[in-house]
Design brief:
416 residues, Rna Polymerase Sigma Factor, Chain: A, 10 helices
């Protein structure tokens, strides 16, 4: 199979799961009710403690800076990955944002697994950049369903032979964000700023001059489209999971707007200077839950009213304790500058775009990916059919659904 501008027909490959374009409408229910509103004012969430500080050690300046923490490498496919990897912070002095704003110190937190390996000409040959979703962080990839299927011994991106880079984007995780101190005075960053910071982390802090692969999920997938256009010779392959290569518009933009306005129209938001989380955050979480949910999966998971209420109460309670309203506003607004569509022809690396048929955020019936992938010189798209195994927009978290296509990309690009 050649890597060119087409959506391939896998129907004759003997796969158990045969990707194709499914054009049925995927609906979503309103899962939350007024009864779920917290009865008392919420306290500002505490900083989440780091469980990885038990074994600090000095790491070579070639691959880390600042304080780092270490954990056992290369767990098995089924073991606990939560303590895997080495963490560090990259401090960028006087970071200039695209809108002209200046931040004296921008912190980019990151996790790495494995070590970089250079070929005879000094080019790093085994580095993989993984980019996370809107409200996530780099360590979200460290689960048995993702890392266990890709980074474990003998897997496609075995961390014993690959250098895995997991950054936290601006505004998320351990990287600089509004809730740290500046609140609504934090610079209004966009995706271009986030990609610039990622590139500087990779090149200036980790001293990586080439990437074997850029793989992103959701927001990270959109970043990977941007990487492919901005740095076309920097990587051997690109895999965006759960995204579209065009500006965010239509229902996708509308629901994001609803989430933002739920917070901004709450008097308790106080222009970002609240002392307790505004109740409008609840509405924003309701929108986010609907965007990322899968009706079929949730029906099977919670087949009764009691189990459904218990599930959503637990989900909301956890999110309210760990989410900041200003951070959410910034995270959703950051996508305003995203639109790779004008220059898709500039992408040089083989690119594999993977979506799922039950994705509320990127529904296949729009036909956007099918149309735009034809403009990518070495592009290919796969839409995973709706099934009991898919998880809607979150299908990207289950590597078993799509890693066979990643294997083909790596083989065709000469990376495996």
């Amino acid at each position: 199979m050649k890597w060119k501008n087409e959506i391939p027909d896998f129907s004759k490959k003997g796969k158990d799961v045969k990707p194709h374009w499914v054009l049925d409408e995927i609906g979503a229910s309103r899962f939350m009710t007024q009864s779920l509103l917290p009865p008392i004012r919420l306290r500002r969430p505490r900083a989440v403690g780091c469980a990885f500080c038990a074994a600090a050690f000095a790491l070579s300046a070639a691959i880390a800076g600042g304080q780092v923490t270490a954990a056992p490498a290369s767990p098995s496919r089924t073991s606990d990955w939560s303590s895997a990897g080495t963490q560090g912070d990259f401090i960028i002095r006087n970071f200039r944002f695209a809108d002209g704003s200046l931040l004296p110190e921008l912190r980019i937190h990151y996790t790495t697994l494995g070590s970089p390996r250079r070929n005879a000409t000094g080019v790093v040959a085994n580095a993989v950049l993984m980019l996370h979703g809107t409200t996530g962080n780099g360590r979200d990839f460290l689960t048995p369903a993702f890392a266990g299927e890709l980074f474990a011994s003998g897997q496609l991106l075995d961390s014993a032979t690959h250098f895995i880079i997991l950054p936290d984007g601006i505004g998320t995780g351990g990287s600089s964000k509004p809730s740290d101190r500046l609140r609504a005075r934090f610079p209004h960053y966009g995706y271009a700023d986030m990609v610039t910071a990622q590139y500087r982390l990779v090149t200036e802090q980790l001293h990586v001059n080439h990437l074997l692969l850029v793989l992103g999920t959701s927001m990270g997938a959109m970043h990977s489209w941007m990487w492919a256009e901005l740095y076309p010779e920097f990587m051997d392959g690109v895999v965006p999971l759960a995204s579209l290569p065009t500006q965010i518009a239509g229902r996708n933009e509308m629901v994001r707007r609803l989430a933002i306005q739920s917070v901004r129209t709450d008097p308790d938001w106080k222009e970002g200077n609240y002392t307790t989380q505004p109740h409008g955050l609840f509405g924003a979480l309701e929108v986010f839950f609907t965007m990322t949910s899968s009706p079929r999966y949730l029906q099977r998971l919670a087949p009764t009213r009691v189990s459904a209420d218990a599930y959503i109460d637990s989900w909301v309670g956890t999110r309210l304790r760990t989410t900041d309203a200003n951070d959410v506003i910034y995270q959703f607004e950051a996508s305003a500058d995203y639109d790779p569509s004008p220059t898709l022809e500039n992408i040089r690396a083989p690119l594999l775009a993977i979506n799922s048929a039950d994705d509320f955020v990127n529904p296949p019936e729009l036909g956007i990916l099918e149309r735009e992938i034809k403009r990518v010189p070495r592009g290919k798209a796969v839409v995973i059919p709706y099934s009991d195994q898919t998880r809607g927009h979150g299908s990207h978290t289950l590597a078993t659904l799509w890693k066979q296509y990643l294997e083909e990309l790596l083989r065709e690009s000469g990376s495996s």
